[in-house]
Amino acid sequence: MANPLFDTLFGAHAGRATPFLHLADGRTITHDGFLRRTAQFANLIAGMDVAPGDRLAAQVAKSPDALALYAACVQAGVVFLPLNTAYTPSEISYFVENSGAALFVCDPAKAGALTPVAHAAGTRLETLNDRLGGSLGEEANHQPETFATVARDEGDLAAFLYTSGTTGRSKGAMLTQGNLLSNAQVLTDHWHFTADDVLLHALPIFHTHGLFVATNIMALSGGAMIFLPGFDLDAMIDLMPEATAMMGVPTFYTRLLDDPRFTRELTAHMRLFVSGSAPLLADTHVQFEARTGHRILERYGMTETNMNTSNPYDGDRRAGTVGFPLPGVEVKVTDPATGETVPPGDIGQIEVRGPNVFKGYWQMPDKTAAELRADGFFITGDLGKFDDDGYLQIVGRNKDLIISGGYNIYPKEIEMLLDDQPGVRESAVVGVPHPDFGEAVVAVIVPDGDAAPDIDALRAACARDMARYKQPKRYEIRAELPRNTMGKVQKNVLRDDYADAFAPA
Ligand code: MLC
Ligand code: AMP
């Protein structure tokens, strides 16, 4: 096959006048219409000398054009690098520079702030909005509606997704065509997606869950998506009767459950609810079944590996577990010290191997070697155990990571910024339980001297340099940080001390 990912996901639907995207304003985009728009973008970017293998970075609002830009990159053999719309220019500058992107596409409203970023990186800047506009959106209208698909093979890169590290420096996870395609095929089959499905899609499309799980599955199966710009409770409740399936992070489910309009009748026709990206509380699973009669299907994945395990479609979907390894994926639980597999029931680090596992971190051979073993097993940094029936349970993390509303937040990045601020001797950032986001960020500050640091100034510094979702939702001042005998900060003590910071009154 000339370009396996493109041909299978998108090209296969050429000429089909069936719906692919249903939009909130009532418009529908057919499979064929989407392909024609994709070809226009592919012509445009190829004409801008973005060559196969080059990176195209995009920080754009969720829209059919944003999705067509992804498909166009696949068709043109360009490596797609989607970026969270919440990132500030200082965060963006790292990604654009580090990836060596040949083209950076942003919202026209941000072009003023991001032009210096593109200049500094020596990258061409174009714009795209969610109303068919921006320089790219407008110029695409004048391009041919067919494009000679660039030949690729399964080992060629299709996408970069950046994921932060415990050192605070983001790493570009390199995903191949084969990584994305194998996972889309396995999941489509495993979760029984067909051309008759309509997925309620309210996730962002700059991360694995919304793009490579939700969108790739729907593209492959030939079904349709109700493509919402973001999470909107009213719209989701209104449109649920039109859908057959939904995918979401746990916050989606707790928010739906908090609404009395979310009833058994509203969901009676639904076929499947999938949760992932963060732990789903067993209590949410139980409440959801009591309210709707449906058992949420929880699965486990990550940026570097796409999806690894899933609860069964037919069979017992167990609360508090992430199910079994997906077909073709090997999962083992090992002793972090020796790398040896531990007996079932024992806790260890989770390692995975399979066609879904990424190729490595862009230009970071040492980090790649530290996490991706020579035998192909990737050390996830998650801690877990297999129960007697072979279900995997995630019990914690071996990495200093907070997951808030499904977004990963690396404390080190925030601590480095806070430590640089006047009046701060040192800081420690922890995640504590939050009723809406699962976990929320608390910053613990040790003052440098007697005067208390200016918290408003700390807030402002974070707001300037960091996406909103990373910014601490609470600041605590302490004379010193708790440390163990080795001098290591005891974050577990801090997590316990502030465990009730966001508890409902
Ligand atoms: C928004 N805020 C957040 C936040 N999202 N704070 C912490 N964590 C988050 N996730 C901030 C807002 O900026 C705002 O700040 C305040 O919190 C309230 O915002 P909101 O209006 O309630 O938020 P909303 O826009 O509704 O977004 C919440 C959300 C969104 C849960 C819908 O975060 C979301 O779509 N999350 C999905 C993330 C995702 O797709 N993850 C997949 C990663 S892939 P203020 O101060 O202005 O009030 C992956 C692999 C895998 O992990 O396995 O899937
Ligand atoms: P990311 O790097 O954004 O891809 O996040 C991946 C991380 O999210 C994993 O390493 C896990 O820690 C976490 N994760 C994903 N799915 C689940 C799940 N179902 N339960 C618990 N944690 C999960």
Outline the structure in words.
- Helices cover 31% and strands 25% of the residues.
- The protein has 505 residues and is α/β, with parallel strands linked by helices.
- The protein is globular, with a radius of gyration of 23 Å.
- The model has no long low-confidence stretch (mean pLDDT 96).
- The protein contains 16 helices and 25 strands.
- The chain binds malonyl-coenzyme A and adenosine monophosphate.
- Malonyl-coenzyme A binds next to α8 and β13.
Mean pLDDT: 96
Output the strand order for the largest sheet. 2-1-10-9-11-12-13-14-15
- Uncertain stretches: none
- CATH level 1 name of the domain at 1-18 and 31-146: Alpha Beta
How does the major sheet shape up?
Answer: 9 strands, mixed
Task: Indicate the radius of gyration in whole angstroms.
Answer: 23 Å
Topology:
Blueprint: H1 4-9, E1 19-23, E2 28-30, H2 31-47, E3 55-59, H3 64-76, E4 79-82, H4 89-99, E5 103-106, H5 111-121, E6 124-127, H6 134-140, E7 157-163, E8 171-176, H7 177-190, E9 198-201, H8 208-221, E10 224-227, H9 233-239, E11 245-248, H10 250-257, H11 264-267, E12 272-275, H12 282-292, E13 297-302, E14 306-310, E15 324-325, E16 330-334, E17 348-353, E18 360-361, H13 365-371, E19 378-386, E20 392-397, E21 402-404, E22 407-409, H14 411-419, E23 424-434, E24 438-447, H15 455-465, E25 474-477, H16 491-497
Parallel strand pairs: 1-10, 3-4, 3-5, 5-6, 9-10, 9-11, 11-12, 12-13, 24-25
Antiparallel strand pairs: 1-2, 7-8, 8-18, 13-14, 14-15, 16-17, 17-19, 19-20, 21-22, 23-24
Helix pairs in contact: 2-3, 2-6, 4-5, 7-8, 10-12
The structure holds malonyl-coenzyme A and adenosine monophosphate.
The site of adenosine monophosphate has 18 residues, from β13, β19 and β20.
